[in-house]
Amino acid sequence: MADPDLRRDAIRELLREEEIASQEVLLELLERKGFQTSQPVLSRDLRVLNVAKQAGFYRVSEEERVTPLAVLKSLLRSEQPVSHFVLLHCEPGAASAVARALESEGIDGLVGTIAGDDTVLVASDSHAASMRVRRRVQELL
């Protein structure tokens, strides 16, 4: 059984039913239920499920764990207010490539892009810049 959702459901169930203090024990219990997985995959599953150790045992936390922005300050590089956006839709899986290519075009006023799977959000510094982005994309459609 390789379905991540089924495996994660099994993890939730095991953590509700038993007090589990180590990932090794959890891996063994998952194997008994028919889930062959590795420790790195289990660690990723625990993060996705918002599992943390509490009083020595793994527990599913109902509240979202968010690292405070002040703790992440060393990761910040700059800020720039932007009020103009263009939203582009593309083929599934292509958004990163489209965003990167668009940024490399050197369009004056293009501040940056955010790529999902099939959507790119383009931020520009003015309405005129947004129109330049739109014109460039429309040339290709």
Folded structure, characterized:
The chain is 41% helix and 18% strand. The protein is of the alpha+beta class and 141 residues long. It has 2 domains: 4-60, Arc Repressor Mutant, subunit A; 81-140, Gyrase A, domain 2, CATH 3.30.1360.40. The strands form 2 sheets. It has a 3-stranded antiparallel sheet with strand order 3-5-4. It has a two-stranded antiparallel ribbon with strand order 1-2. The chain is elongated and about 60 Å long. The protein starts with a helix and ends with a helix.
- The helix fraction, in percent, is 40-55%
- Low-pLDDT stretches: none
Helical segment count: 5
- The second-level CATH architecture of the largest domain is 2-Layer Sandwich
* Strands ordered across the widest β-sheet: 3-5-4
* CATH topology title of the largest domain: Gyrase A, domain 2
Summarize the main sheet. 3 strands, antiparallel
What is the name of the CATH class of the largest domain?
Answer: Alpha Beta
Instruction: Classify the beta-strand content into a percent band.
Output: 15-25%
Task: Estimate the mean pLDDT confidence.
Answer: 86
N- to C-terminal distance: 43 Å
In short:
This protein has 141 residues and is α+β, with helices and mostly antiparallel strands.
Set out the fold topology.
Elements: H1 4-17, H2 23-32, H3 39-48, E1 51-54, E2 57-60, E3 84-89, H4 95-104, E4 110-115, E5 119-124, H5 127-140
Antiparallel strand pairs: 1-2, 3-5, 4-5
